[in-house]
Description:
mainly alpha
Amino acid sequence: MPRTRLVLLLAALAVAGAFACSPAKPPVDPEPSEAETTPPPPPPPPPAPSLYERLGKREALDAIVDELLGNVLADNRINKLFDKARKDKDRAKQLHTRLVAELCVIAGGGDECAYDGKSMKEAHKGMNIATAQWDAFVEDLTIALKTRNIDDGVAAELLHKLEQKTKADVMGSGKGK
């Protein structure tokens, strides 16, 4: 009997060894998760161009201010406010440079803007600028923007920002203020 047991034991070991040496079943790929089947989101769109960029940057502002000053100096409603610039070329150049810089700041030109003049309030102190004069200046600027083919929506945005950021300082700077 011990021999029979030994034979059975050897047979069992042979069968077990045969199963152990048989090729393994290929692994079953798990179903991909939802995260693996969902495509990655598209990259965010580039930021919208700033008002400064939509205006045409500094080069365009320079041309707009050239037109503006021509309009203002020809406008009998407000040209007296610009007499010093009309009579002095250096002063006219300085006014041009500062108007470009001010519009650049208002339009969001960031580091490309370098306004080095007085604040709007200080620059217009004692001038007693009335609503009619402000409106004439804005009209002259509007004409300059149209002459330079600036899109109406972009022009309106600039004019709105100009009003929001400077009108109170320009008009609120009468004598004694």
